[in-house]
Amino acid sequence: MPFDLAARLAARRADNLYRQRPLLESPQGPDVLVDGQPLLAFCNNDYLGLANHPQVIEAWRAGAARWGVGGGASHLVIGHSSPHHALEEALADLTGRPRALLFTTGYMANLGAVTALVGQGDTVLQDRLNHASLLDAGLLSGARFNRYLHNDARSLAHRLEKAIGNTLVVTDGVFSMDGDIADLPALAREAKAKGAWLMVDDAHGFGPLGAKGGGVVEHFGLSPDDVPVLVGTLGKAFGTAGAFVAGSEELIESLIQFARPYIYTTSQPPALACATLKSLELLRSEHWRREHLQGLIRQFRQGAEQIGLQLMDSFTPIQPILIGDAGRAMRLSQMLRERGLMVTAIRPPTVPAGSARLRVTLTAAHSEAQVQRLLEALAECFARLDTEPSHA
Hints:
single chain, 7-stranded mixed sheet, 13 strands, globular
């Protein structure tokens, strides 16, 4: 038969790469109910603990009571409501840019921005470890597509020498699987030297990074001239859903005219924009959330070093423990789950072959006692795993 899907699925199972969806039966938070089992979770991206915040929930309810529960149409027809507009203005203020534009998802924001800015006869250059949505956007744009070595400005400079047409340099701000941050000052210098634009997807940086939660661009003190195209998502530290692109008046107007994922999609519910406005207010005013989170990150890294775990170079809430073998990573994840903790094993093709890992994510909703419980469980599991037969 032409589509032997059963064989493909069987091969994925045999390689310890089969994906399954855990069923969450509770709100997001450290203590969750998954597949009927109470667990302490260290695997969500709710970095500031806002996804189940009472004030955000109330803002959603009040918004739904006034505006209903559906967007009703695309933004360009009759789906652009007052809450959407207010949220765009607030996001522009957060990022220090003239305008911001809402998208329904981060994937769509990246597809929309890249494909609207470059096409045939142009060049798009991307970090090798960029998120799949950025890589897909580059391929779909029709521009000449190339990837530079991870976080390597010299490698980027070499590829810029061969660039043609309008050139867009694209990078994650915080790399979602490694937790490290892009060297934006160096990348911006190389891009500006060649007349290229730099686009940063800071999905995991907004909230945890920057003095006021403005992300990796604020962390480095860069200007809109350094990073003309800035993307953020709302389903992580903001605790809600959706995404945005921030930039100049001309950039946003161009996206409204040419970004197909924006033009041809129903707007998000206005009540969701109301909820996000409240979460943005909390993100900017409750500095203790970032401070507490940074304390937990230090606690975890110090404890992991004492255990002898191989951490990756990250000062963000993403703290991957490098395992290598996919089967070993899966076994460790299962052992933690047997002890009441949920830490996801990340395997190829999401990460390069031979670099399977446990991806620990910390949030402001976690306590020091919960992080200590995780460290103790990790120490026990690694000690026991070394005495077991290989599960590769």
